[in-house]
Structure formats: C-alpha cells, structure tokens
C-alpha cells in the first residue's frame, strides 16, 4: 500500500443545524459542498480544513449514542493544528465553549488542549 495522506474524517451529528453552525461559524471551516439526500433523510456537508483536508458532516435520523468514556473503542479524538493555542482557546471561550486547561505534551513539549463539538465528540487543539 502507498497511502499518501488522510483525505477526510466523517462525523455524524444529532442536530445538523447546530453542528453546522459550530463547525462553520465557530471553528471557521469553509463549506465545500452541501447535499441533502432525500432517500436517507440526511445532509452531507463537506468542510475544508486549512485548504487541504475535509471533514464530512452527516446527519441521519435517530443515530445511536456514542459511548461517552475517555477510552471508548474507536476514534479517540480529532486534532486540529494551530499556530497560537492561547488565541484559539480565547476564541472558543468567547462562544461559551468549555475548554480544558492547556497542557504540555511531555514527549514533544508542544501545547495542547481538548474541547467538544455539540455532540460531545472530543476535539483537540495542538500548537505546532
């Protein structure tokens, strides 16, 4: 295999409009395309991250709950690289988003912190 990069990450949300607002207005991701799939009663919104990667935001009627344990099996979290973590944390706090205290990675000595999307999906800011 010759994998080149991650192409996209797919996220299923419980409230499409609320999650769309969070990812577009608050996180500042740029919409690429938005499609309503009538046969599935589902929206799919492709979002650009830093001019390169995509997040696919999906809505489905009555999706099952995500296990809410820090070490649940499956995707642990989605991390975003930032230049200045303090500035980005301040921006999240302005929108009443709870952010954990900034920590230092003991291996890389880089700053990072966690917050959550409207459905509790763990998101990380990582200062490069």
UniProtKB/TrEMBL annotation:
PROSITE patterns noted in UniProt: VOC
Taxonomic superkingdom: Bacteria
InterPro entries named in the record: Fosfomycin_Res_Enzymes, Glyas_Bleomycin-R_OHBP_Dase, Glyas_Fos-R_dOase_dom, VOC_core, YwkD-like_dom
Keyword annotations from UniProtKB, A to Z: Metal-binding
Pfam family, one: Glyoxalase
Listed SUPFAM superfamilies: Glyoxalase/Bleomycin resistance protein/Dihydroxybiphenyl dioxygenase
Residue ranges of domain VOC in the record: 5-128
UniProt-recorded Gene Ontology molecular function terms: metal ion binding
Entry protein name: VOC family protein
Gene source species: Neobacillus cucumis
């Amino acid at each position: 295999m010759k994998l080149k990069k991650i192409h996209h990450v797919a996220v299923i949300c419980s409230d499409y409009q609320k999650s769309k607002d969070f990812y577009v207005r608050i996180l500042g991701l740029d919409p690429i395309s938005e499609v309503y799939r009538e046969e599935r009663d589902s929206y799919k919104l492709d979002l650009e991250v830093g001019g390169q990667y995509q997040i696919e935001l999906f809505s489905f009627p009555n999706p099952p709950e995500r296990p809410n344990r820090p070490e649940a099996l499956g995707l642990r979290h989605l991390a975003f690289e930032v230049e200045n973590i303090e500035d980005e944390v301040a921006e999240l706090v302005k929108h009443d988003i709870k952010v954990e205290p900034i920590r230092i990675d003991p291996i890389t000595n880089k700053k990072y912190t966690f917050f959550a999307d409207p459905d509790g999906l763990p998101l990380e800011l990582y200062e490069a």
